[in-house]
Amino acid sequence: MGIECCRADGSYVECPASTLLTGEANTYQSGHAWRAWMVASAITNGCGYSFIQRDNRGDAIALWPLLPGRIAVIWFGFEPRFLMDGQQIDPYNIVQLMAGTGSMQNPYSCVSPLVRCASALSLSILQERVATSLAESGRVGKISITHPGTLSTTAKLDLISGYISKHITPEGATRPLVLDEGVRVERVGDGALPGLLEDRKFQIMEISRALGIPPQMLYQSDAGALSSQIEMQRQYVEGTVAGWADRFATSLSSKILPQGVKLKFEVGDLMRGNMRDIAASLKDLATTGALTLNDAREMLGLAYVDGGEQQLTPAAAPSTAPDSTKPTGDIE
Fold first, then answer.
1. What is the pTM of this model?
2. Mean pLDDT within 301-321
3. Which of 168-182, 186-200, 259-273, 283-297 is predicted most confidently?
4. Which terminal residue of the chain has fewer beta carbons within 10 Å of its beta carbon, N or C?
5. Where do the DSSP E strands lie in the chain?
């Protein structure tokens, strides 16, 4: 994903501070590692924080990640103030990445997505225990053992323990069962598997809603057509990646770039389809005059060619009108 600096009119400029995102963010982290840490911190805690180190001229030279517990935002009247380790600090030197919108009580505070889906995560832990129990029992589930006669308590316990030791195991699931004296073994209900599947759907929807991720990205669905997979990737980029990129650009542009210049994360490359579909679409746009040849080459990351700025003439459709140069009527 490319990172560019541009003005309001769309023109691109060179900004040394942008290398903090594409090169080295600090002594120990690359720009990519720093961005990954900020996102992970925001997801875990609701907000990710970093301190901007500046030189004597005030230009940003490093981005240092901060543990969330070191930062607090308090209000004095209508003015928010940032405290780092209990000491007030200029907010111009703090990068704050929020996982979503601020709360009504504090616009500079955000609830962690993990807190918003805590119930689904807790249910997942319980579900894993049930699934483990089913796997250990050979997925038999709850059963009933019926004996036509009257059994003593000791005989009942012996019958239950014997059945469990021999058949309620992964190895015993396929072991033949020999019954005599009119004993019957029946499954009670349909087992826990249908309920587990319904619970899994609930978990996926809740977690995907909290994290802003399409539900299809969180489980392995049936393999669909290539176009469906490309569309799913497009939804993920537009609904998830683009949102994080926009929050990064908003939080950084006014603090590390000159006035009037903004960061722009190029997410278009992540939404490209296969080359055949791209070529067909660009050809249609170029032949109808919507794009020039160089416009199409730029989208493909290719260099310009001479004469590529001229619009292509749409291909003439075959005419069905009669040719006026041909003689008409009967030949005498």
1. 0.64
2. 65
3. 283-297
4. C
5. 2-7, 12-13, 47-54, 60-66, 71-76, 79-84, 87-89, 94-98, 143-146, 184-187, 261-266
Going across the sheet that includes 261-266, the strands are 12-13, 2-7, 261-266
6 and 103 in a single domain? The answer is yes
Is there a single domain that holds both residue 142 and residue 104? no
Range(s) of the domain holding residue 159:
118-197
Domain count, the chain: 2
For residues 123 and 107, membership in a common domain is answered with no
In angstroms, the first-to-last Cα distance of the chain is: 75
- Residue 316 confidence (pLDDT) above 50: no
Residues 98 and 76 in one domain: yes
At 9, which CATH number? Answer: 3.40.140
Specify whether the CB–CB gap between 99 and 47 falls below 8 A. yes
Residue 171 one-letter amino acid: E
Look at the alpha carbons of 270, 274, 277, 278 in this order and tell me if their dihedral is positive or negative: positive
Tell me how far the alpha carbon of residue 23 is from its chain's centroid. Answer: 24
Strand order in the sheet with 87-89: 71-76, 79-84, 87-89
Q: Rounded to whole angstroms, what are the CA distances from 87 to 72, 75, 300, 301, 326? A: 10, 14, 50, 48, 94
In a domain, 136, yes or no: yes
Do 107 and 248 sit in the same domain of this protein? yes
Would 299 be classed as within a structural domain?
Answer: no
Q: What is the CA 298 to chain-centroid distance, rounded?
A: 28
Only one residue has tokens 């589930």, namely: 141
